[in-house]
Amino acid sequence: MRTPIIAGNWKMFKTVAEATALVREMRHDLNEIDGVEKVLCPPFTALAAVAELLRPSPIKLGAQDMHWEEKGAFTGEVSSLMLQELCQYVIIGHSERRQYFGETDETVNRKCKSALTHGLLPIVCVGENLAQNEAGQTEAFVSSQVKAALQGLTSAQAQTLVIAYEPIWAIGTGKAATGAGANAVIGLTIRGALASLYGEATAQAVRIQYGGSVTPENIAEFMTQPEIDGALVGGASLVAAKFVSIVRQASAAKATR
Q: What is the CATH number of domain 5-256?
């Protein structure tokens, strides 16, 4: 059985002081919840401080982005070589990076390869926008994103990463996809793309999250779906009680599947 994974993407929120206060507020409760992998993804500035608070702890740490080169004249960038001392995970290809900062399928692929080379596990984001969804292009678009992101990776490498299905029309809008709808895209489209690349065994081994307006009120709807292995949580991960509730419900849902 695939171990559920709940990751909190804090985006551009929380100073170092605020980040450490948030971790202290929810660290004990998260440590008490079994059966779910927990990942916190604060801003770069807070990674070192949060890493210290999580030692020793089963809670994992993730970065929100990275450059594909190990080092060089790339002012403002952070490499996998720098992150490997602090993190276990890194978010790659988030729609906000694609929309505002020129992320492409090619750069997503290069970042995935660099992350895996240096022992970081990518959380690879894919998802269609509202126009594509309404035009019936979800399957073709999302499938192409998956195949491009994983191009050149081995089956063994693919099985270590996480894919996050985040329909762009649901991110930060309060309009989440339905559990059944997300389950269908993940089970048919994303696992279908993985199967075409690596075979059915690998497709069934990869963990796939849902992301997009995830809250304590709707997490159970997603986690009771057989193809959904967790959530990439945005705004709700910034409130300790909400994030703990999401993780706790994910754990309870796993027990019933």
A: 3.20.20.70
